[in-house]
Structure formats: C-alpha cells, structure tokens
Amino acid sequence: MKNKSRKKKGAVPKISPLKVLTSIPGLIKGVIGIIVIVLIVFVIKKGFFDSKEGEVTTISQSSIEKILDISELSTLEYTYNAVAAGYDEDGKTLLYHVAYEGTVSAGIDFDKLKVKVNPDKKEIRITVPEAKILDCSVNEGSLKYIFEKDEYNTATISADAYKVSKEDLKKKANEETRITELAKENAISAISGLIEPWVDQVDDEYTVIIK
What we know:
This protein is of the alpha+beta class and 211 residues long. Helix content is 28%, strand content 30%. It is built from 4 helices and 8 strands. It has helices at residues 17-23, 61-67, 157-175, 177-202; strands at 33-39, 73-87, 94-109, 114-118, 123-127, 132-138, 144-147, 207-210. The strands form 2 sheets. Strands 1, 2, 3, 6 and 7 form a 5-stranded antiparallel beta sheet that branches. Strands 4-5-8 form a 3-stranded mixed beta sheet, covered by helices on one side. The protein is rod-shaped and about 75 Å long.
C-alpha cells in the first residue's frame, strides 16, 4: 500500500535535498557562485564631440567635466546562487535552508568625480570615488527549500524565506569587498576609454592619470 501524505493548504512544494545539492553544489558549505555581468551606461551630451566649424576646443576642467556629464551611477551586476538558513522566532531552532538566486548591483557616484587640469605639466588628474553597493534583489521564483521537519512547511514560509534570503544577500554582498573593488576598476577603465581618445585628438601632449 502506498502512503500518501496530505498536502497542507498554502504550503510550498518540498524539494528533494539531493536535487538541490546537485543543482547548486556546495550550498550547505556556503560556497557562492558568482557570475559577473558588467553594465556601464554612459549618457553623453549630444553633439559634444561634433565641433562646429571655426570652433576651437581646448582642454580644461570644464571641458573634461562636460565629457563626464554621464549617468549618475556606473554599475556592475553580480548574480549570486547561494543558500540561507531560516530560524524560528527564538533564533535557535533551524526550520529550513533556502536556495536562492540574487543580484547585487555596485557602482560609483559620478557626481563625486574630481577633475584637475595642470596646463603647465600637461597633466589631467581624475580621482574616482570608492564604489558602493547600490542594490540587492532576490528572484522570489528561484527559492527552493530543504525543511528540517515537514511541519515547518507552512503557508507563510515563502514570505519569510524571501526576507531571509534578501538579508543574507545583503550581508554577503557587504562582506565581499571584491565586488566594489571591481566596480571601481571597471569605472576607471570606462572613464579612460572615454577621456583618452578625446585628449589625444585635442592635444596629445597631455597625460591622463585616473585613480
């Protein structure tokens, strides 16, 4: 005779622990897979590089700042496949582990870029601010569970697990310093790619220093 367990109303589907651990290796050990997706969006003022006939373009702080009149934030997006633990209100009783997919965005505030032009030394110095975590989001549809006991699979588990996953993602993102380091490195490379060709065209004796 086959035993059939009655499904609780509103409860989320229980998944096979083997299936979860196979699809996301090392979950319980806390190994996080990170896929780096670089997203940098520049909004350059229309026609800035199109010099009018007879117009003389010179290198100055204002002309550099005009080129860098771009979107407020340059971001990098990281996709995390991670696991979080959900506890009872006592903070001690483990109820479940939840596997989730989340996205972390990091970037810099371009309003805080500092530009200095030294005509005598033919030098342009651009100081880039430290990058920061901008946003953490969890794909609610990606949640998968391993319950410690069947009775913990309740109607409110989805909302609770979503909150737990988001808090876990924020914690992991703030502990992973490499995210903001890469965000700044990427911003420096992007600024260099934007500024240096223009400087070479206007006055190739200038040296561009970005840090």
